[in-house]
Amino acid sequence: MEQVEKRNRYVGLDLTNCPESEAIIEAVEQDNEDVKITRFPGYVKVESINKLVINKTSVEECLGDSWETEDLQLAVTSYYGFMADWDDDHIVLQWDNV
Amino acid sequence: MIFLYVYEQGNPPALCLPVNPEDKWAEFKQVIGGLYKLNADEAKMTYFDEPFTPQDDRTLAELGIKHKGLLKIVG
Amino acid sequence: MAKKKRGLKEEYNLLTRDLDWEPSYVPFEEMYPYVSFEGIKIHNWDRWEDPFRVTVENYVRIQAEKERKFHAIRENIDMMQSQLDLTDARWLEAMKLFAGVAFNGEYNAHRLFQYVSRHVPIPAIRFAAFTQSVDELRHVQNEVLLFNNYNKYFQGFHSWKKVSHRHWLMSVIKSFFEDAMTAGPFEGLAAIAFGFEVAFTNILFVTMGSTAMANNDLCYTAVGFTNQSDESRHMTLGMMAIRAMLEEDPDNAPIVQKWLDKWFWRSYRAFTAIAYILDYVAPKKVVSWKEAFEMYIEDQVLNGLFKDLEMFGIRKPLYYEQAIIEKDRISHQAALILHRVSHVAFFHTFAPTAEDQVWLEEKYGDTWRDVWAKKWEQQTDPNYERNYPGLPMLCQTCQYPMVFAEPEDIHKTAYRHSEYEGETYHFCSDGCKTIFDDEPDKYKEAWIPAHEILSGNCGPAEDLLNYWGIDPEDGGDYYESTDYKNFEKWKKMRA
Question: Which of B7, C194, C319, C323 is deepest in the core (most CB within 10 A)?
Answer without folding.
Answer: C194
